[in-house]
Amino acid sequence: MSIPVLPLGILFPEALVRSHPFAILAAFVAINTVIYVTLTVAKAMPKIYFGDYRRRRYERAETRSIYPDGTR
Question: Contact 16/22 with Cβ under 8 angstroms?
Answer without folding.
Answer: yes
